Amino acid sequence: GRGARRLLLAASLCGPVAALHSSGPPPPRAVATRRGALDTALTSVAVATSLLGPTRASALEREFSNGNVLFSQDYFFKFGTKPRPLDPETPLPGAPPFVRVQTRYDAMAKYSSKIGVGLEAFAQLAATPAGAEESVAVADAAEIVLKTLRPMGLLANSLLASETVTNEVLLARFYVNEVYLRLVDLGDVWRESPADGVAAVEAARRNLNSYVILVNRAIPPKVGDKFQLV
To answer: What angle do CA 149, 167, 110 make, to 5 degrees?
Structure first.
């Protein structure tokens, strides 16, 4: 059926993933002979769960062409499926793609403070009482978070990919895009139905935490401080 064809397509598109070694990149032969355990696991788990459908409708629905998101080339663009958020209690297998420590360090120095502002703003947003009179404050907090989503995507590019765009980068972009879709019109949604606004924030939180889970795997102490879940 269609689900089986999607699984076969996803599996055929998975590429090798290099393991991270503190002494430098792995030898070419090692990269060539190791099939990407993490890419394969991410693809199989994300595609399989996506066949069950999205966990909650977006405040702003994603266009099939991906024309109304921040990063058009994400996991949905490549595979045509919408993976569910990651479970913070379930560790991802394997290691993140190899990226030089200096590259990751420089990226964290450039983007981490901006992303931290966004995470703090989201924590305040999530704590907002569910009342229509809060719609202006909600819109203001959401706007702060929205301004930090592009730096999140750019950081993922630097932490999770070196020479090629990996499935991890595509997945990180997907989660960033899902946060965007749920927050871009949040003030209006909240004013019309605070319950729907609260639901949109909760969906955004799960996707934002999924992004944090992915990038934190590539942030050892010598690169910087890991981000906190919200």
So the answer is: 35
Q: How many residues does the chain have?
A: 230
95 by DSSP, 3-state: which? coil
11: which 2 tokens?
């599996």
Count Cα neighbours of 116 within 13 Å in the Cβ-side half-sphere: 10
Q: Rounded distance, CA 19 to CA 38, Å?
A: 10
Separation of alpha carbons 147 and 57, rounded Å: 23
Higher pLDDT, 10 or 137: 137
The first and second tokens of residue 209, run together, are 């935490």
Interacting residues of 48 by C-beta distance below 8 A, sequence separation 6+: 7
pTM of the prediction?
0.75
- How confident is the model over 119-167, as pLDDT tens digits? 999 999 999 988 888 899 999 999 999 999 999 999 999 999 877 889 9
Would you give the DSSP letter of residue 133?
A: G
Please report how the helices 167-183 and 149-160 are oriented relative to each other, as an axis angle in degrees rounded to 10: 170
In the chain, the N- to C-terminal Cα span, in Å, equals 38
